[in-house]
Amino acid sequence: MELHMHSHRWEHRSPDWTVAAVSGFAAGAVLMVLELLWSTIIMGANPWETSHMVAAITMGQDALQSTDFNLMIVAVALGTHYVLGIVFSLILAAIIVPFRFDSSLGMVLLTGAVFGLVLYLFNFYGMVQFFSWFAEIRGLATLTAHVIFGLVVAAMYWKLEQVER
């Protein structure tokens, strides 16, 4: 897996925004499934707790009053999660394309993994200043899920971008 490090200078290229959005939507779904499986199967926790946390970004802290299933909470959490996944995917595409990190699968995966790590740090150590309830789910599982998110976005973007060419 050759990384082609010498060829990664900024070049005026625009990402395929549709491909980036589709990649973010799909990777957001993967991340939600991982979180659901991890919380219920591995941790034995309430599967709706994370939905309440995500919904509280949009709805306010009142969404945290319960962790029971609530269709409105789940719908808002899904919408919020997908929008954030797409936004973060658009940002990643804006990094990948002009620096030609899409020149090989290895390079795009490395970029995606680093992006997932940075995204985790941004969300759980930066944005936690505004959404303090996320501090309680910091940890290896959440970090791993965010790195996987970055990998899935990057790999899907790379593959779908090739199809579009």
Q: Spell out the helices and strands N to C.
A: HHHHH
Low-confidence stretches: 1-6
Total number of beta strands = 0
Major sheet size, sense and barrel closure: none
- Helix segment tally: 5
From the alpha-carbon coordinates, what is the Rg to the nearest angstrom? 17 Å
Fraction in beta strands: under 5%
Mean pLDDT: 90
- The best one-word shape is elongated
Distance between the termini: 22 Å
Structural class: mainly alpha
Helix content: 55-70%
Describe the structure.
The protein has 165 residues and is mostly helical. 67% of the residues lie in helices and 0% in strands. The chain has 5 helices and no strands. The protein has helices at residues 17-42, 49-59, 71-96, 105-126, 140-164.
Short description:
The chain is mainly alpha-helical and 165 residues long. It is built from five helices and no strands.
Give the topology.
Layout: H1 17-42, H2 49-59, H3 71-96, H4 105-126, H5 140-164
Helix pairs in contact: 1-3, 1-5, 2-3, 3-5, 4-5
Supply the key terms:
165 residues, mainly alpha, 5 helices, 67% helix, elongated
